Structure to design on (825 residues):
RNA sequence: GCCGGAAUGGCGGAAUGGUAGACGCACACGACUCAAAAUCGUGCGCCCAUUGCGGGCGUGUGGGUUCAAGUCCCACUUCCGGCACCA
């Protein structure tokens, strides 16, 4: 019979679905394992050969664990809210739900073509109201703890996308989505207080010993903790300037003070200056720079605030105050002491204004520093911080998470706004009171106080995304939802917390729904928990289910070090504080996935058209060969270029397995060749170890080696089955087909991983190389574990060795049994 | 600039401090065939010698430790990734 994957692959995919082969139940007595893929967003662009690599790897791992008796949770779902899906929908001129639905269908077909064994009964979709009601529910936990606030702060505004973006959404100074320019603007936004968790997010990285160092380092850098001092410079205007520095010992060399153009402080100093107009012009000018332009700046610019000076609290010198946009209002105090001699940036600004650069530290000792001359850096630090009454401060580069988007396609906030303190207090006395933060979230509009009030969990069904006629971004602070009166204007019953369209009770008060939506990252910040308990109506997930399944044992996917993986850890910690989970970190082990590159080594991109579709490959060589090649191409965590030539090797391997299987069945011999048997068992061991450690490339090559060793000798059917079993996770279709041909009626994927027979592995003899002065001159076959003495004798008797040794004196002989003999002359 | 990671044949890559280049691809030659494809077999780091063995060099560069280094240590080069006016 011909090897025809195109026939049996589809057949088995259907059969597995019908038989629920991959269905997982909660709560078993067996060991269990949660293997998680980063779920995709089903965008319009179709898959290329790089996408399935991670899915194939976790599929292999899951099958392996299942065959080893584990109850395996290996689910899949869709991250479908947010800009990618919405932008696609706008391009296609259709409603986002349609886009999402169609793309999910397409993606699912593609995943199934690969023979991936997901438990589809646990499929999730972040845009499903049944799902996002729980995202909203978890947001309430943030709100209640004062971690979700509404504040005016400088944020990234992207005109083209018509929305603000988080720092994590900005790549190389442009929007990650679309590469549009971004401006810094103060705006009122929903903020999640991730900085309050910064220490835990850094410190708990030490718990993650099964995470790649690379990812942990990226997170440490991104969070960017620094420890320094905060203290004040007095000014001739009577307004103190508070500054933050990590090098207080350089204070004697501080010859000017620099303030950020967009800070409040600058506003105040400007009023007492003699060049207010010049300063205002500079402020306007720098506010018009995009983030990219700011970053690209090579030469420092700024304006001296004339008519005002600051006093260096150590030297008592009067020093100039400069406004310059290299100082950021969003970091530290928005003002710095500039020490030109010991900081490159300060040196640049000093050059522009001809300001003195005074070296105050040489070889770790203070110089040109009056009373401090000769003191060490350490001593100076203590003396100075006492003298200026400095406070020790920790600062972080990470900013609080700007969490609102002026877009349609996201989770609505479970928040309504009410007017007036009296109304707020009335609401606080009702059931809503239990969900209010200590400090009210509010702002003042036209002189009237607006208070944020949470929508209770039991009324979240009233906060579903409405059907709208137009969902295009409006380009204003209000999202598209603001245009729908029936969405915005509602009534809140303070005695129950109920939200209604009409005033249904006399005491109901008017309220306005929040019109911004949550960002793309919201739904993906907790989704792994939902897989554990997909049908739960009341809660995001039950405590029992998370006690059983959590934490995730293996999380595999592409590099999302600074966005998703920080957000996910942050949400997890808040959920921990809310008592929803008991453990500190969501993902025990993280496996980082390398990309598949185009054949020329460049990145695969739609524009270049340098990719191949998985369907294409499957139609040519079959899904099994495709899977094998994706694993064989190189180490899992390393990127590697795609090669159609290389793909052929996997296909040939499977064809040879197929032929061998036919001859094994036909010959039906009773005993297997001893060397072949040993090879099979060695390979069982090797492949098992390699799967456990995600070394799929060497697992595949060891099976190729094994095939080379067994294909021309007698193999009994029973022993050949072992070979088929270890191949099954990699090539699920062909192995299932052979398994059934060999008489089984149930799936090979529900069978047991073969046991290694150590006694057949054990070799009787071994080849030992003999070196003279470290160069291999001969080798001898000797029985395993031959004692040193005998080995030495045999080595010295060897003809080739004798030839090399003639006329020389042996100094020393080093013998490592079963390994090597090294003769020194 | 800071923080990671990497560097091995024509290519992807393999190697608990112990025979570098497994496995696969490409290539060459041979078998089968009228022929081709497929398949099977042999060879395949570089240089010298090939009438026979063989010999020298070799894992980015320079040094070091060791009987023995791709692997450990020191210094450097290049490339890739991340962060970046964060005081």
């Amino acid at each position: 019979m011909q090897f025809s994957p195109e026939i049996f692959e589809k057949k088995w995919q259907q059969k597995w679905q019908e038989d629920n082969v991959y269905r997982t139940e909660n709560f078993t007595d067996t060991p269990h394992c949660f293997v998680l893929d980063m779920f995709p967003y089903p965008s319009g662009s179709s898959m290329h050969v790089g996408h399935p690599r991670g899915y194939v790897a976790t599929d292999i791992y899951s099958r392996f664990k299942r065959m080893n008796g584990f109850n395996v949770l290996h689910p899949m779902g869709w991250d479908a809210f947010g800009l990618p899906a919405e932008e696609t929908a706008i391009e296609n001129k259709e409603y986002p739900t349609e886009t999402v639905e169609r793309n999910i269908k397409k993606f699912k077909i593609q995943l199934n073509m690969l023979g991936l064994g997901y438990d589809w009964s646990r499929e999730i979709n972040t845009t499903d109201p049944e799902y996002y009601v729980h995202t909203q529910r978890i947001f309430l936990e943030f709100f209640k703890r004062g971690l979700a606030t509404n504040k005016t702060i400088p944020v990234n505004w992207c005109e083209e996308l018509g929305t603000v973006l988080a720092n994590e959404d900005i790549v190389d100074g442009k929007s990650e989505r679309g590469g549009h320019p971004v401006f810094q603007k103060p705006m009122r936004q929903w903020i999640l207080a991730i900085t309050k968790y910064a220490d835990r997010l850094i410190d708990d990285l030490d718990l993650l010993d099964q995470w790649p160092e690379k990812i942990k380092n990226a997170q440490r850098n991104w969070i960017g903790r620094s420890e320094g001092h905060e203290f004040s410079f007095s000014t001739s205007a009577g307004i103190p300037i508070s500054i933050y520095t990590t090098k207080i010992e350089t204070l004697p060399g501080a010859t000017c003070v620099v303030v950020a153009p967009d800070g409040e402080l600058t506003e105040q100093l400007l009023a007492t200056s003699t060049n207010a107009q010049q300063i205002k012009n500079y402020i306007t000018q720098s506010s018009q720079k995009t983030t990219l332009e700011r970053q690209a700046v090579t030469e420092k610019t700024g304006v001296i605030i004339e008519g005002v000076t600051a006093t260096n609290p150590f030297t008592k010198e009067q020093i100039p105050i400069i406004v310059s946009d290299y100082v950021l209002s969003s970091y530290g105090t928005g003002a710095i002491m500039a020490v030109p001699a010991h900081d490159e940036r300060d040196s640049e600004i000093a050059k522009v204004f001809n300001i003195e650069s005074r070296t105050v530290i040489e070889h770790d000792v203070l110089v040109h520093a009056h009373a401090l001359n000769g003191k060490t850096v350490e001593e100076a630090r203590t003396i100075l911080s006492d003298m200026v009454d400095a406070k020790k401060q920790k600062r972080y580069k990470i900013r609080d998470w700007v969490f609102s988007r002026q877009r349609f396609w996201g989770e609505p906030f479970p928040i309504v706004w009410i007017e007036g303190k009296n109304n707020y207090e009335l609401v606080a006395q009702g059931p809503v009171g239990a969900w209010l933060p200590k400090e009210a979230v509010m702002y003042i509009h036209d002189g009237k106080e607006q208070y944020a009030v949470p929508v209770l969990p039991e009324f979240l069904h009233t906060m579903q995304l409405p059907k709208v006629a137009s969902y295009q971004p409006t380009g204003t602070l209000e999202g598209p939802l603001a245009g729908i009166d029936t969405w915005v204007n509602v009534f809140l019953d303070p005695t129950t917390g109920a939200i209604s369209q009409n005033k249904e009770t006399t005491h109901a008060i008017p309220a306005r729904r929040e019109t911004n939506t949550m960002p793309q990252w919201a739904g993906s910040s907790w989704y792994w928990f939902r897989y554990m308990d997909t049908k739960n109506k009341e809660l995001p997930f039950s405590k029992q289910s998370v006690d059983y399944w959590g934490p995730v044992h293996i999380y595999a996917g592409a590099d999302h070090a600074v966005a998703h993986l920080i957000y996910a850890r942050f949400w997890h910690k808040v959920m921990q504080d809310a008592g929803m989970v008991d453990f500190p970190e969501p993902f025990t082990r993280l496996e980082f996935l390398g990309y598949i590159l185009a054949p020329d080594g460049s990145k695969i991109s739609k524009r270049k058209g340098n990719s191949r579709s998985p369907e294409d490959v499957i139609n040519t060589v079959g899904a099994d060969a495709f899977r094998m090649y994706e694993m064989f191409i190189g180490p899992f965590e390393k990127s590697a270029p795609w090669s159609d030539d290389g793909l052929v090797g996997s296909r040939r391997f499977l064809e040879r397995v197929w032929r061998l299987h036919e001859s094994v069945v036909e010959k039906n011999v009773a005993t297997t060749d001893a060397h072949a048997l040993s090879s099979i068992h060695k390979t069982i061991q090797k492949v098992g170890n390699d799967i456990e450690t995600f070394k799929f490339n060497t697992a595949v090559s060891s099976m190729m080696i094994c095939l080379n060793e067994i294909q021309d000798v007698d193999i009994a059917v029973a022993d050949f089955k072992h070979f088929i079993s270890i191949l099954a996770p990699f090539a699920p279709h062909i192995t299932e087909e052979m398994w059934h041909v060999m008489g089984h009626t149930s799936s090979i994927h529900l069978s047991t991983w073969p046991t290694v027979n150590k006694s057949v592995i054990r070799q009787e003899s071994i080849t030992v190389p003999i070196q003279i002065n470290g160069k291999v001159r001969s080798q001898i076959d000797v029985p395993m574990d031959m004692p040193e003495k005998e080995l030495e004798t045999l080595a010295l008797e060897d003809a080739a060795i004798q030839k090399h040794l003639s006329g020389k004196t042996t100094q020393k002989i080093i013998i490592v049994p079963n390994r090597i003999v090294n003769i020194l002359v």
Observations:
- Chain A has a mean pLDDT of 93.
- The CA atoms of residues 788 and 817 of chain A lie 6 Å apart.
- DSSP finds 27 helices and 33 strands in chain A.
